Amino acid sequence: MFRLSLVRSVARPLSGRRLVHASAIRRSAEPIPAPEGSGAVEASPKIASIVDSVAGLTLLETSQLVDALKTKFNITEAVQVVAGAGAGAPAGGAGAAAAAEEKPAEKTEFKVTLKSFKAEQKAKVIREIKGLLPDMNLVAAKKFVESAPKVINDTMPKADAEKIKKALEAVGAEVTLE
Q1: Which of 60, 59, 52, 49 is nearest to 31 (CA)?
Q2: What does the alpha-carbon distance between residue 118 and residue 74 come to, in Å, rounded to a whole number?
Q3: What's the pTM?
Q4: Burial of residue 101 (number of CB atoms within 10 Å: 0-12, 13-18, 19+)
Q5: Contact 158, 108 (CB under 8 A)
């Protein structure tokens, strides 16, 4: 009996309280000062009041604010990187000319396609396809080969794609890498 009343006396005061996140407690205390030497610039009073308002928001409210700003100003998630725009880039048109002379990035992912095969080597090509694609049985591999041209893999690293191409060409198939 005593234990039950003890549990009730402890549970009642907690039942009416709202759990508070640690960041809310910290916000109620004094603001954290900026580190010295950080180069903080005094902002206008209008900007300072906006910063104070945003600092008082919860994480969920901040997320909603970001979404609303993206909608209002039509901002997309895509990040655009400008080539050659570093701090050491030469001024004027020379930087643009240097960026244009650079080679395009080497392709890292390839699409491997079985184009055709020699009729007398059909059985070997089917066995090779069955070995390359682990979830394919012999009947499915036969249908796959007979329906050439067919994509073997859409996104494959260069080394693996060349390895597959060599293996299939060795058994009489024509394979392209795109």
Answers
A1: 52
A2: 55
A3: 0.41
A4: exposed
A5: yes
Answer whether 175's CB lies under 8 Å from 165's CB: yes
DSSP, res 97: H
CA 86, CA 46: separation in Å to the nearest integer?
A: 33
Hey, which residues does 177 pair with through a beta bridge? Answer: 112
Taking every pair of Cα atoms in the chain, the longest distance, rounded to a whole number of angstroms, is: 90
User: What DSSP assignment string belongs to 14-29?
Assistant: HHTPPP--HHHHHHHS
End-to-end CA distance of the chain: 78
Strand (E) or helix (H) holding 177: strand 173-177
| CA atoms 79, 82, 83, 85: torsion sign | negative
Which residues partner with 153 through β-bridges?
112
Q: What is the pLDDT of residues 44-98, one digit of tens each?
A: 888 889 888 988 989 888 889 988 888 888 887 765 555 554 444 444 455 555 5
The residue type found at 91 is A
Q: How far from 131 is each of 32, 100, 111, 159, 165, CA to CA, in Å?
A: 62, 44, 18, 18, 14
